[in-house]
Amino acid sequence: AVIAHHLAKEVDFFSIGTNDLTQYTLAVDRGNELISHLYNPMSPSVLGLIKQVIDASHAEGKWTGMCGELAGDERATLLLLGMGLDEFSMSAISIPRIKKIIRNTNFEDVKALAAQALAQPTAQDLMNCVNKFIEEKTLC
Are 83 and 130 in contact (CB under 8 A)? Predict the structure, then answer.
């Protein structure tokens, strides 16, 4: 993710695996009971890396997709859409719910949400920002 701007010149697309990205970014094994509570894909550091990859790919005319639990998360969908994610890969059971959210969302609104949320210093502040947006827009 850190060198995405270099890699984007050489690849056709990016596919982000959020489970591994989160684990290695936060140095937290979600399978380890002692530290798994620290595993949070909605961490500003994880989302910041995702945004870097999306921006780098778009700068080179490429697309970015995502697989992993985050792609099927309702709250994350709003942020990821606002960050410019091009493709969401998720379990089949999540598709109708996520599709409804995407169809009922104004892109300019979620772009503004993503910018505001990514500027938050903590995961809790970021989630408060997202939750406020959802309440105001009566989504999810």
Answer: no
